[in-house]
Write a structure and sequence with these properties.
By secondary structure, the protein is α+β, with helices and mostly antiparallel strands. The protein has 13 helices and 14 strands. It has 3 domains: 31-133, Nuclear Transport Factor 2, Chain: A (Roll), CATH 3.10.450.50; 140-195, no CATH class; 201-410, Beta-lactamase (3-Layer(aba) Sandwich). The strands form 6 sheets. It has a 4-stranded antiparallel β-sheet with strand order 1-2-3-4, with helices on one face. A two-stranded antiparallel sheet has the order 5-6. Strands 7-8 form a two-stranded antiparallel sheet. Strand 5 (162-168) and strand 6 (171-178) form a beta hairpin. Helix 1 (31-45) runs antiparallel to helix 2 (48-58), helix 5 (201-214) packs across helix 10 and helix 5 runs antiparallel to helix 13. The longest helix has 17 residues, at 140-156.
Length: 414
């Protein structure tokens, strides 16, 4: 399960505050309630075999994804039941609280009507925190004290390694680095450490598209084929608009999978991605629904290149990084030595951490994979708020939620 969290400004820090409710909520004595109990006990146990056995009996397709399931368990540390929203003999809907953070989710369990009551649907989605479970507000000093304690605990337990910056009124009120950037060579993290920022590159891509729209060089409701005139699939070229690419509603699909694995290091330019995936038809009628599409943002990068006459990387450097004063951000190839760039690690098994080098693309793209620092990301946020990158109208257009995205509102790359 993916758990998207969408914000209007870059994620500069994650504050985790623990809260406890004394409610004595329990799953109901129904077939659906019994299966919900069994799943939650297996998941919360952290026992791979126990969870595998439950899934194999009920949802065998998901039993093939145990690495993903155990990774999610490690990330969340399990869930606690908070409220039953709906209960029938064969269906249960409940609110659950993630143990590792303040994130809440809606759990839906449906079972068949046979005596075995096999699970037919098990769905868990992140939701905005309901008002009835509102967290108590903290003063600034209380917040910093709690944050410092939490980060120290997680760093000591090897659950966190990185840099954290909290800003108020555009100024840092807390900034600290923890752990190491390179475990083999024991290089410590600092506030200058450059971390790979994954899909946060999409914010730079969307800002660039809005700059070109503000300058009258492209229209948001125009099909992408107007700019990519030789795009291979004509349905995509004539039906999918720039706005739909920005909001993941174009049906353009992902880039990850067997094809990416087979060609990972050969994909060196945005055009290489278009050559590999450009013949695909839309996965659904453009504009009809939301589905996260990395390839859609690859296409936005290609449009930036076509309209501006610059490479995506040159455009972003000149019109985003330089205007914002971001001196430590980029998307240079992985085989280039970049000072202060950290190694990423992925967990293999219960505790073994390994460099994620063999999973990375040749270089970051308009869909993600670049690197930055917490200080540079604050500069980006400030530049947006101060309208150094876009005027007020287009800044609002960029950052205001447009479409429902599994319980959140997705704007343009934000």
């Amino acid at each position: 399960m993916t758990k998207p969290i969408f914000m209007l400004l870059p994620v500069l820090a994650l504050l985790i505050v623990s809260a406890t409710w004394a409610a004595e909520t329990q799953f109901p004595d129904t077939p659906a309630g019994h299966q919900a109990t069994a799943w939650l006990q297996a998941f919360n146990s952290g026992d791979r075999e126990k969870l595998h056995d439950f899934l194999q009996k009920n949802l065998p397709d998901r039993a093939q994804q145990m690495d993903q399931k155990m990774g999610f368990r490690a990330m969340t540390r399990g869930f606690d039941l908070e409220k039953i929203e709906e209960s029938t003999p064969t269906k249960l809907v409940a609110l659950v609280q993630e143990r590792k953070s303040d994130q809440m989710g809606r759990l839906t369990v449906e079972v068949d009507s046979s005596e075995a009551h096999r699970v037919t649907n098990l769905d868990l989605r992140a939701i905005p925190r309901p008002a009835e479970f509102a967290l108590p507000h903290m003063s600034e000093s209380e917040l910093i004290t709690a944050l410092r304690k939490k980060l120290a605990e997680d760093s000591t337990a090897d659950r966190f390694s990185g840099a954290v910056l909290v800003a108020k009124n555009s100024k840092p009120v807390f900034a600290q680095a923890y752990g190491v950037a390179d475990r083999e060579h024991k290089v410590p993290n600092t506030l200058k450490t450059r971390f790979r920022i994954g899909s946060m590159n999409k914010m730079f891509t969307a800002t660039s598209i809005l700059q070109l729209a503000q300058a009258g060089k492209l229209g948001l409701d125009v099909p992408l084929g107007k700019y990519l005139t030789d795009y291979p699939n004509k349905d995509v070229a004539t039906k999918v608009t720039i706005r739909e690419l920005l909001t993941h509603t174009g049906g353009t699909g992902d880039i990850f999978g067997p094809e990416f694995e087979a060609h990972r290091l050969e994909l060196r330019t945005l055009q290489d991605y278009v050559k590999l995936y450009g013949n695909r038809a839309p996965q659904f009628e453009p504009g009809s629904r939301w589905e996260y599409s990395n390839y859609g943002f690859i296409l936005l990068g290609a449009i930036i290149e076509k309209v501006s006459g610059q490479s995506y990387y040159d455009y972003v450097r000149e019109h985003i990084y330089e205007r914002a004063g971001m001196t430590s951000s980029g998307s240079e190839p992985e085989n280039e030595a970049i000072p202060d760039r950290s190694l990423g690690y992925t967990r293999m098994g219960a505790n073994d951490l390994h460099p994620n080098t063999d999973t990375l693309p040749y270089r970051g793209t308009s869909a993600g994979g670049g690197y930055s620092t917490v200080e540079d990301l604050l500069k980006f946020a400030n530049a947006l708020e101060e309208h150094k990158l876009l005027n007020a109208e287009f800044t609002d257009e960029l950052t205001t939620g447009k479409v429902d995205a599994r319980g959140a509102r997705y704007a343009f790359g934000f």
